[in-house]
Specification:
With about 375 residues, the protein is α/β, with parallel strands linked by helices. About 45% of the residues lie in helices and about 15% in strands. The longest helix is centred in the middle third of the chain and has 21 residues. It binds 5-amino-5-deoxy-1-O-phosphono-D-mannitol (M6R).
């Protein structure tokens, strides 16, 4: 039931603050001081390397998680798309833990990658939305994301719940490995618990994304740029737009543009720059200026202070609430989803059942 929304995707975007709150309550204890994992838990002190494998949107969640685990838990992370992973025949060294992320828990390539790691990895973990799924059943420990049933083919609430679960795991790892003391952990957990409220505020950008969608719907190609943990978000924005609006969209790491793709930029190509005010903000803005100097139309997604610092000449801006850079990848999923949704609606495509796609991909 669409609960009064025009599409399941719209409903699922809107319910993110609520489902996220449920997921947070599941993984953070009542006084907000500790992470609670299902038994038998994970001993992060014994892990030398984490291998993250998934497809599509779940893969972009892994890409974000790599930044988190490496930066705050100092844990080396390898990631790959499931359809390539086992063909590399990756050597698996002692101390390796494999983690598979899948909304459905039935994606054929992800399941095959999991089976490749059976008997090779010390432990097999999964982050799933469907607890009875094959991937959950074949893991040593399955962590539910608690997003509730997701019907829209374009994944939305599963992505933010995957990210939230992975962020909590990264915090747990950071604490266990001695890189985060109790106070710092409690502060980050408080930040997470405040996130549903901030998401509700951020959802107010919806009317703005609706306005911009009519302009984006005219484009043939759209580029998404991001740096650091926003680079995977650029990918997620491009994937969402391709899937449901059928507009060709590509994501690049902001700094990579000048190595080739900037040749594509002209006044017909909107360039969507995802730039929360994090440690990399100034660099992203200087990449944005390179685009503008070549006549590119920049749609900047940042907060009010960021928009001020970015200066003149930006085509359009979406103003986001301020956010701890650690949590920005979760919050900035909302503009990525809403832009894709409203552009698809403006184009009149089948939002919930886009052509050529299935909700669960059970062939390799
Ligand atoms: O069920 P899974 O999370 O394993 O599915 C993975 C991808 O097929 C999925 O995320 C796909 O990319 C979505 N349609 C993206 O919106």
């Amino acid at each position: 039931d669409k609960a009064g929304y025009k599409h399941f995707m719209a409903k699922e975007i809107a319910e993110q603050p609520t489902v996220l709150q449920g997921a947070l309550a599941h993984y953070i204890n009542a006084d907000g001081t500790a992470v609670t994992l299902p038994e038998p838990g994970i001993d992060f002190t014994q892990i030398e390397r984490l291998t993250l494998v998934a497809c599509g949107t779940a893969y972009y969640a892994c890409m974000v998680a790599k930044y988190w685990f490496e930066q705050i838990a100092r844990l080396p992370v390898e990631i790959d798309v499931a359809s390539e992973f086992r063909y590399r025949e990756p050597p698996v060294t002692p101390g390796t833990v494999a983690l598979f992320v899948s909304q459905s828990g039935e994606t054929a390539d992800t399941l095959a990658a999991l089976r490749y790691m059976e008997g090779k990895a010390d432990k097999i973990l999964s982050v799933v939305n469907v607890p009875e799924s094959s991937i959950a059943r074949e893991s040593d420990l399955a962590l539910p994301i608690l997003a509730g049933t997701e019907i829209g083919v374009a994944s939305t609430k599963a992505f933010t719940c995957q990210l939230t679960t992975l962020a909590i795991l990264a915090l747990k790892a950071a604490q266990a490995r001695g890189h985060m003391d109790e106070d710092a952990l409690a502060e980050k957990l408080a930040g997470l618990r405040a996130l549903p409220g901030i998401m509700n505020l951020a959802l107010q950008i919806e009317s703005r994304t609706d306005q911009l969608a009519t302009k984006l719907a005219e484009a043939r190609d759209i580029l998404f740029l991001g740096r650091g943990a926003m680079y995977p978000l650029a990918h997620e924005g491009a994937l969402k737009l391709k899937e449901i609006s059928y507009i060709h969209a590509e994501a690049y790491a902001s700094g990579e543009l000048k190595h080739g793709p900037i040749a594509l930029v002209d006044k017909h190509v909107p360039v969507i720059v995802m730039a929360p005010r994090d440690a990399l903000f100034d660099k992203t803005i200087s990449n944005m200026q390179e685009v503008m100097a070549r006549g590119g139309k920049v749609l900047l997604i940042t907060d009010a202070e960021g928009a001020k610092e970015a200066g003149e000449g930006v085509w359009e801006t979406i103003l986001m609430p301020e956010i701890d850079p650690f949590l920005a990848p979760i919050l900035y999923a909302l503009p990525a989803q809403l832009l894709a949704y409203h552009t698809a609606v403006a184009k009149g495509t089948d939002v919930d059942q886009p052509r050529n796609l299935a909700k669960s991909v059970t062939v390799e």
